[in-house]
């Protein structure tokens, strides 16, 4: 895991500027009109799908839904998807439910796209289009560089599809920012996790996918119950569950939702809760000067991954092989 996190700037770099694969897929999408889009993914790939949803809805104006693969594999029904865009995100491309959902969507009339690390995987074969994220082999069970590349590939695709020059420029700056983020020390947050019975991670908008991803890494790598919530959602019922020994990590990108995240951080601190904030005037964790709001949450994953990996080692856990987990999760 440590080695693969260190590889992030290098493997993400080729996807960040003039990536022909994104241009190729975008040219097909530009020639079509879609009534809606559906994104299919589980675990870390599902969190990448949350990120992609925000990009599609804000940049392309297309409504996006999350797929429920068990509708196909468990209930034996295939939803009608005439003319829709169906996107499967999977590092391995081998989970049977994702493959079955992709096949069903294609048979149901959708244009199917697989965003995968293995371009020869069953999910890729099942799809009309393939966008290979090109992260290289990943050995640790906890996905890191493949998650980052899934997000970067998604941003590159949407920049090319929508013609968003600002996003294109943000991506071009991302490799250097990923390298700089790698050097940031978030051990203050990790230290607070040491005696925590549970943890919360929060953010909003483009940061929500990374928020949920970090919470997952806390669960699988540190064996720590962790929940990732939208900053808006956290202020409803989940707020009551936060106790003084449960640290909250807040990710804050500099955009239209930043004010709400700042307000939540201030509210939690006034309640004497442990809050570690990345970004903004109330940030406590080391961070960079703000850049593109859709790219910064990607870079925030890197110091979080490093802190989690180091804390796992400190606890005597093997972050590369968490108990009860395997690299390819075969669900139906």
TrEMBL record:
Q: Does the UniProt entry include the keyword Transferase?
A: yes
PROSITE patterns, A to Z: SIS
For biological process, the GO terms are: carbohydrate derivative metabolic process
Q: Gene3D superfamilies, alphabetically?
A: Glucose-6-phosphate isomerase like protein, domain 1
Q: Where is the SIS domain?
A: 25-176, 189-317
Q: Which UniProt keywords apply?
A: Aminotransferase, Repeat, Transferase
Which branch of life, at top level? Bacteria
Q: Record's Pfam families?
A: SIS
Classification via SUPFAM superfamilies: SIS domain
Among InterPro entries, the record links this protein to: GlmS/AgaS_SIS, GlmS/FrlB_SIS, SIS_dom, SIS_dom_sf
Query: Could you identify this protein by its name?
Result: SIS domain-containing protein
Recorded source organism is Methylobacterium nonmethylotrophicum
Organism placement in taxonomy: Bacteria, Pseudomonadati, Pseudomonadota, Alphaproteobacteria, Hyphomicrobiales
